Amino acid sequence: MRKLLTLLLVVTASLQVSAQIRGNNITVTVQPDHQDWTYKIGEKATFTVNVLKSGTLLDNVSIDYAAGPEMYQDVKKGVVLKDGSLKLSGVMKRPGFYRVDVTAHVDGKDYKGACGAAFSPEQLQPSTVMPQDFSDFWQNAIKEARYTDLDPTKRLLPERCTKDVNVYEVSFQNMSWGNRTYGILCVPVKEGKYPALLRVPGAGVRPYGGDIWTASQGAITLEIGIHGIPVTMEQTVYDNLNNGALKGYWEFGMDNRDKSYYKHVILGCIRALDYIEQYTPWNGKECGVTGSSQGGFLTLATAGLDKRITYYAPVHAALCDHTNSLRGVACGWPHYFYGSQGTGVGNQKIETSRYYDGVNFARLITDQQKGWFSFGYNDDVVPPTTAWATYNIVKGPKEISPYQATWHFWFQEQWDEWEDWLLKQMHIK
Question: How far apart are CA 281 and CA 340, in angstroms?
């Protein structure tokens, strides 16, 4: 028994130690000489590169760096830093982002740092063209989808319920009979009418837990999946789909606007609002949508197409300004035409991309809808060039809150600000 207890204590101690692993002892920092990371066109930006070990400069460290307009860096060098520090400078002659990426090589491992400096970002404008029938195409698609009854299902998930919130897996038909959208619905237990929030997902294939916390504050939340499959299965099911039938789904049908994978995805967002309106205790007033990355794009699409949306919050929104790369400027994920400048890209794919560009949906947002935009200047998945340009063309009331040092992830303060803003729009804070 004593040996067994000793073994348990050793295992427990081991788990506690491993759970405390955080970060790296070796770090690479790239700091601009402007606190807000922002410069005017033609102004010189100076970057200080430091390679640190235990918080102090590391001598004789080998680095590689790339510098220049993001996604099109034209300076690439390798050097040895005798004292672990280096100064670089850059300038932009047109609005955009100048990016410095640094990789330090220490004891056979690579450590990375970056900085994206903004040059007159408020002047950035998107390249994508809105097709003349853009709005008609989508409104007709919504009208046709609504010929199919929602035919909703609803299953209580008692293991997820709390004393304040009932949690359900729901589904409803999307654009045709048998084509369903699944999600997690959270509704306050207390009877009454509530504001609503639709949460739309980032790219990938995964299960969902639902937004129980926001519901506990006094709101209806519906978090949806996009692939027409239940969202409460074992993780291995989603992993197999992600590596098999749904691998690269964002490319499916991108040479035909009616066959694009994202057509049923966007219509699923609109039908989710139909479900909220018809089958939940929504108060008929505050209704919002939010998501990050792919979900940021779906946020823009939902707000642009449906005026039931009174507030929306896209975070590092993907799928914006696809055609930018055709002119040698950073484009949004999934970078459909990156590397295609000056080559024969099919006109049909270019034209189709315009019907699935977050910029064109953002152009439909009205003065009755309030927006909150946030993203990082170091993001190498969703370039801040596209995020700023998308923000600039929105005509309705809007706020912008960049967290410059983030890549394609959140800082805690960013997350807290986002949640706080959503609650305020629902008038429950």
Answer: 49
Placement of tokens 């729901």 in the chain: 170
Phi, psi of 186 (to 5 degrees): -120, 125
Its pTM stands at: 0.93
The helix (H) or strand (E) run that includes residue 68 is strand 61-69
Between β-strands 311-315 and 282-292, what pairing exists: parallel, antiparallel or unpaired? parallel
The residue behind tokens 């696809």 is 322
pLDDT of residue 339: 81
Per DSSP, the residues of 208-248 read ----HHHHHTT-EEEEE-SSSS-SSS-HHHHHHHHHTTTTT
Residue whose token pair is 């009205």 = 366
List phi, psi (to 5°) of 420: -65, -40
Q: How far apart are CA 398 and CA 362, in angstroms?
A: 12
Q: Which two tokens stand for residue 8?
A: 């348990």
Element holding 7 (H helix, E strand): helix 2-19
Say what the pLDDT of residue 226 is.
97
Q: Hey, is 143 helix, strand or coil? A: helix
- DSSP annotation of 316 reads S
Question: Could you tell me the pLDDT band of residue 6, with boundaries at 50, 70 and 90?
Answer: very low
Is the per-residue pLDDT at 9 higher than 90?
no
User: For residues 184 and 64, what is the distance between their CA atoms, to the nearest angstrom?
Assistant: 46
